[in-house]
Amino acid sequence: MTLTFEDFQPGHFGSFGPRLISRDEIIAYAKEYDPQPMHLDEEAAKASMLKGLAGSGWHMCSLMMRMIYDGFLHDTTSLGSPGVTEMKWLMPFRPGDELTLDVEVLEARASQSRPSMGVVTFRCSTRNAKGQTVSDMTVPIMIGRRATAEQV
Fold first, then answer.
1. How far is residue 115's CA from residue 68's CA, in Å, rounded to a whole number?
2. Any idea what DSSP says for residue 152?
């Protein structure tokens, strides 16, 4: 079943994961996109304020997007997003962490200018296996309306 705008009501939407994070994954991402020492080298990371190897915040954004897509977005009438409203990296994520994504619908409003869609604002939080919140993101996503999806 494809989810449309009408399927998103304020409140808890779902939890997705967990996703196990490996040392090699953290280092590979850092080499390609954020080659700071605390993401690449364990000794340099120990000497940093992170006190050990940790993933890049940008890596976290990519992980969250993948978990959002795999969790539910691939089964929606998503039309994209105008951007991220807020992104917070609250604590480091490390090799061996198992991350779970919790998704809450904050608001769902029909578009006045484009009646074929609505905008759903999500709060997406990742937490580790200890239940500690690692990151928090607020993002609006444009979603097609049911009447439009039925016409296709």
1. 25
2. -
Question: From CA 56, how far away is CA 89, in angstroms rounded?
Answer: 9
What is the model's pLDDT at position 151? Answer: 54
DSSP character at residue 91: S
* 84-98 residues labelled b (16+ CB within 10 A) or e (exposed): eeebebeebbbbebe
d(CA 105, CA 123): 6
Averaged pLDDT of the chain: 95
DSSP β-bridge partners for residue 19 = 99
Both tokens of 57, joined, read 């915040």
On whether the CB atoms of residues 55 and 94 are closer than 8 A, the answer is: yes
- Upstream peptide bond of 18 is cis (omega within 30 degrees of 0): yes
Residue type, position 45, single letter: A
| Six-digit token string for 75 | 């089964």
Q: Helix H segments across 1-152?
A: 23-33, 37-40, 42-47, 57-71, 146-151
Task: Report yes or no on whether pTM surpasses 0.70.
Answer: yes
Domains of the chain with CATH codes: 5-151 (3.10.129.10)
- Bridge partners for 28 per DSSP: none
